[in-house]
Amino acid sequence: MEELNQYIYNFANRLVNSFSSIVFVIILGNTLSQEEVGIYSLVLLASAYAISLLTLKINPSIIQRLNDTKNKNLLNQYFTAGLISTLAFSVLIVSIYYTFSNMIMDGFNLENKNFIYLASFLAFTLTIRGYVDHILMSLLQNKYLFFISSIAFVVNIISYFILANIYSSSIEVAIYSIYIANILYVVMGIFKIFQYYKFLIDKNILLCIKSIMTFSFIVYFVSLADFMNSNIALLIINQHLGKEDVAVYNYAIKIAMLFLIIGASISNVNYPKMTKLFSENKIDEISNLLTVTLKMNFYFILICSIIFLSISNEIIALILPPEYQSMVELLFIILPGIVLFSGFMAIKSLFNALNMPSVGLLIVWGSLILNVIFSLILVPKYGLYGGAVSTIISFLFNPLCIIFLIRIKTDFVIDFSFLYFIFPFYLISVYLVYQFQSEIGIKLVISMVFILFASLITNPIKIYRRYKK
Fold first, then answer.
1. Number of C-beta neighbours around residue 187 at 10 A
2. In the chain, how long is the greatest CA-to-CA distance?
3. Which conformational region is residue 140 in: left (phi greater than 0), alpha (psi within -120 to 50 degrees), or beta?
4. How many CB atoms neighbour CB 465 within 10 A?
5. pTM
6. What dihedral angle (degrees, nearest 10) is formed by the CA atoms of 399, 403, 409, 412?
7. Nearest 10 degrees: CA dihedral of 301, 302, 303, 309?
């Protein structure tokens, strides 16, 4: 039961983080102009690129080291090494963005240098927040993570309205409110972490940093490609279309990415469990864990996505101004690829847990290359729809490679057969829902039929019993 609680709280934490981002950008969509929302999206994109390009991904390495270490003194050293490295990368981001602000401003098609400075400090706070987040996950403090994420979300919204009331709504006020939420999150997270670890610097600290960096160097290229795969179409759209189109596509991607929450939550809980099981050489338990979580993941993601698509017209009309309604068609294109990708996130961390991050490197870079090629070809010709098609092609490529590489690189026995039945039926259901967009009753009937079919194929009750056993 405790393990199930970890999945639930990790999912709840992910949901709060993604939901807060969506809610906040919806608030901005109703208080700022469409062009301003587009600029805000580019500031966030510039911040995200700073984190992806200028920081090695030490967080997975830290989790792997902390879960594989029993010595208390060494645990403190690894924690300290990770914190020092994170702070160093954060300072590096701010320094480079200040030094090359003109070049970066041109790259993101922004007309005000102040937006680059805002992006750099946002990246600074997000990098430290990410480290705190992963340390707490390694300690399986998912309930506490949910608690501080919820508080940070509320503070973000309240601080925005307070600052907007004082200075009037603007992009700067939106970013400042995110600063406040991130700083509060870090303070509350560090308070909890120091109950388990101490800040310890001694002669071995450089060796610990080197150990972390060696593993992180390969993971860096995997994470970089993963990030660019999700955002490259937006960058190309920014170069060929207007800020208004950037705002529409950004909303579509943000909403679609909500369906990564379940997969990411399961992956985050599975990863420390797998590293521990590998250290104990419990191969059969790992195979069972991956098979059960894969089926459980797909069952919930497919059901949630088909229900959402059935009422997407009504939801978008309710929460956003009419100029954003065109994103509904983009969602019908993007979501099938996102859903398949998210489903496999439950087992994606297997290669990192096996200390084989280079395998993941091949998958994500192949996917990214496809995305870049199709984006450059399709976006100039078909606009937002071209970006959506290039994104779905890259996301479909990823899980196909995972299936193939698991079979040739590992000895694990994972049952994928249920996908051969359930995913084609899902695509047919999505097509039918799209054809009856104006008929809410018919769309809901199609969704109910799919849910019944998915339940028969995956048998969620049997999955749950197997998981408990």
1. 11
2. 69
3. left
4. 11
5. 0.70
6. 120
7. 100
